[in-house]
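Run log // design_07
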């Protein structure tokens, strides 16, 4: 491991909304939950319940035929009152099919399978299946199905547990490591058993000393090490974390498993423990509620499907108009309505007083954005190509490697929303590429059709010519046969006449 942990670029952003003590408050059961069937990654799940059915907490209510995806579970016990299109937390404000459950307040759980405390006697395929049927995805924000990730990472040599939580203001992972250190360590041991890795590294930023000490207290496994990472945004990005810890760089377009490394978020690791040992599917998560619009920022363990308003109300919001942002203040997305449901990737909710953003001005070519880019891109140059919609040139400058961390936005003195330009350029390039692909496919089909028609025409011409030739030969053969018959008949006639004369 390198002596100096770190990476080039990034910015140091102090927590704008500090708290005296990092806690986890258990949110009360909501009156109803709205559970989207469209996960962040994969196909939409298919309901296996109908309106009027009574369900138990942890019961599977939507499944999928695709083994890549995960099922959806009821987060409360109660009655299904609707299966319809509703707005989900997405920057576009799109609607998706959701199942609405009215809580009965009893929170009765269904019994789910699991390995129990003695998980080392379970084979890896069984544990991977328990992870899948428990609906676990990446809780750091990616939402990638965990069972698929660990199944593809078997025989890796290093397991990295991401506890950096570099987004300013978000503190749910910090609280989780302080309050559930035993579960985190046991979850790491489960992952070591599944992946076959020889070692595991838990990375914690050096401003989270209480979480670091809690993990050290419960770690008695020599294969697990806990290390400090400098507090700098964006230390939690997977490729940057690998570079900081191992001193190796994941190449452009490559993935961590290609280097024998697998990364998991610390909250995902705890959820794996819950699924394998405690037999509990993923029905709740810890959410940080903070921002200038609330009086008491804190962490709340809340059931999935609860509304944003349900958890915001516990942080004593002020009476002014608010903007709501899901995720971090840097990489989060704005949410138009507080009635949208909390989903598996909702790690933070920022409630801020409405304010006007400063108007963007012309780029002064200061180069500050180039210095802070954590993946060593040239945001200033990419900006010009993205603005002119020259996406091919932008891709030549490795636009695809941009992680949209908004470090460049943060330091830009002209207040240019650079990350928005890059996101737009990526989408435009995808659309252009898809359109070109469809055009190429249509041209190939047209050319093949023309070739097929010409081939058929040629084949018909050759077939007709062959038939004509065959007919000519047949007619010639028929004429020869007729000549032979006529000659034979002439001979018979001549012989008969001679006989009659005699």
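design_07 sequence
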């Amino acid at each position: 491991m390198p002596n100096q942990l770190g990476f080039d670029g990034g910015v140091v952003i102090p927590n704008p909304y500090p708290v005296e003590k990092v806690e986890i408050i258990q949110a009360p059961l909501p009156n109803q939950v709205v559970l989207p069937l469209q996960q962040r990654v994969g196909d939409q799940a298919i309901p296996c319940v109908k309106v009027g059915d009574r369900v138990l907490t942890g019961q599977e209510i939507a499944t999928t035929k695709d083994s890549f995806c995960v099922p959806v579970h009821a987060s409360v016990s109660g009655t299904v009152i609707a299966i319809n299109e509703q707005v989900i937390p997405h920057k576009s404000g799109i609607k998706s099919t959701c199942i609405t459950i009215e809580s009965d307040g009893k929170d009765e759980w269904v019994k789910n399978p699991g390995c129990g405390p003695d998980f080392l006697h379970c084979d890896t395929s069984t544990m991977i299946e328990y992870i899948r049927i428990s609906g676990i995805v990446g809780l750091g924000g990616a939402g990638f199905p965990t069972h698929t990730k660990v199944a593809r990472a078997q025989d890796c040599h290093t397991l990295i547990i991401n506890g950096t939580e570099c987004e300013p203001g978000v503190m749910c992972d910090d609280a989780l490591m302080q309050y559930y250190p035993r579960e985190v360590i046991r979850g790491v041991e489960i992952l070591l058993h599944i992946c076959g890795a020889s070692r595991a590294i838990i990375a914690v930023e050096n401003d989270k000393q209480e979480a670091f000490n809690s993990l050290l207290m419960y770690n008695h496994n020599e294969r697990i090490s806990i290390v400090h990472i400098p507090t700098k945004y964006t230390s939690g990005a997977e490729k940057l974390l690998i570079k900081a810890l191992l001193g190796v760089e994941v190449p452009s377009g490559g993935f961590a498993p290609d280097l024998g490394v697998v990364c998991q978020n610390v909250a995902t690791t705890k959820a794996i423990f819950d699924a394998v040992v405690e037999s509990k599917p993923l029905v709740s998560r810890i959410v940080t509620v903070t921002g200038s619009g609330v009086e008491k920022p804190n962490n709340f363990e809340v059931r999935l499907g609860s509304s944003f308003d349900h958890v915001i109300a516990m942080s004593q919001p002020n009476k002014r108009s608010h903007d709501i942002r899901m995720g971090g203040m840097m990489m989060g997305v704005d949410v138009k309505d507080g009635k949208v449901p909390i989903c598996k990737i909702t790690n933070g909710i920022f409630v801020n007083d409405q304010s006007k953003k400063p108007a963007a001005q012309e780029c002064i070519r200061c180069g500050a954005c180039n210095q802070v880019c954590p993946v060593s891109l040239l945001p200033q140059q990419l900006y010009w190509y993205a603005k002119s919609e020259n996406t091919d040139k932008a891709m030549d400058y490795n636009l695809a490697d941009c992680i949209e961390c908004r470090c460049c936005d943060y330091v830009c003195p002209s207040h240019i929303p650079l990350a928005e330009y890059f996101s737009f350029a990526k989408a435009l390039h995808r659309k252009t590429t898809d359109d070109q692909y469809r055009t190429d496919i249509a041209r190939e089909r047209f050319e093949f059709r023309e070739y097929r028609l010409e081939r058929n025409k040629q084949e018909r011409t050759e077939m007709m010519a062959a038939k004509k030739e065959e007919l000519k030969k047949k007619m010639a053969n028929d004429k020869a046969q007729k000549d032979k018959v006529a000659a034979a008949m002439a001979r018979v006639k001549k012989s008969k006449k001679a006989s009659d004369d005699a």
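The longest strand covers residues 78-87.
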